[in-house]
């Protein structure tokens, strides 16, 4: 086992240099909060969806149908049947 010199040890392990007060911690952490994901209603089915993303419930993005939701559902069911 190698001898633990006091200087070598403090380089390896994070040792607090100074006491940080509750206020300092609070101010530092005031920017750490997560924000809620913004939801917009789909222009096609009016269900809530994430902005700039294809709607999960109808598969539309703007005026265009990107995903055929019904075909996807059928595919899923067939997969379940096989198992
Ligand atoms: Zn939709």
Short structural summary:
The chain is α+β, with helices and mostly antiparallel strands.
Tell me what the structure shows.
The chain has 83 residues and is α+β, with helices and mostly antiparallel strands. The chain has helices at residues 6-12, 22-29, 69-82, and strands at 40-41, 48-49, 60-61, 64-65. The protein has a two-stranded antiparallel sheet with strand order 1-2. Strands 3-4 form a two-stranded antiparallel sheet. The model has no long low-confidence stretch (mean pLDDT 85). Bound molecules: zinc ion (ZN). Residues 42, 44-45, 47, 55, 57-58, 60 line the site of zinc ion. The site of zinc ion (ZN) has 8 residues, from loops.
Helix content: 25-40%
Spatially, the strands of the biggest sheet line up as 1-2
Q: Distance between the terminal alpha carbons, to the nearest Å?
A: 56 Å
Rg over C-alpha atoms, rounded to the nearest angstrom: 27 Å
What is the approximate shape? elongated
Report on the biggest sheet. 2 strands, antiparallel
Number of strands: 4
| Protein structure class | alpha+beta
Number of helices: 3
Q: What small molecules does this complex bind?
A: zinc ion
Beta-strand percentage range = 5-15%
Unreliable stretches: none
Q: What are the secondary-structure elements, in order, as H or E?
A: HHEEEEH
Chain-averaged pLDDT: 85
Helices, strands, pairings?
Blueprint lengths: L5 H7 L9 H8 L10 E2 L6 E2 L10 E2 L2 E2 L3 H14 L1
Antiparallel strand pairs: 1-2, 3-4
This protein binds zinc ion (ZN).
Zinc ion binds next to loops.
């Amino acid at each position: 086992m190698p001898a633990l010199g006091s200087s070598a040890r403090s380089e390896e392990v994070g040792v607090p240099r100074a006491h940080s007060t509750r206020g300092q911690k609070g101010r530092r952490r005031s920017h750490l909060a997560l924000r809620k994901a913004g939801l917009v209603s789909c222009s096609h089915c009016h269900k809530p969806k994430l902005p700039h993303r294809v709607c999960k419930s109808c598969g539309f993005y703007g005026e265009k149908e990107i995903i055929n939701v019904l075909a996807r559902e059928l595919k899923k069911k067939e997969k379940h049947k096989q198992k």
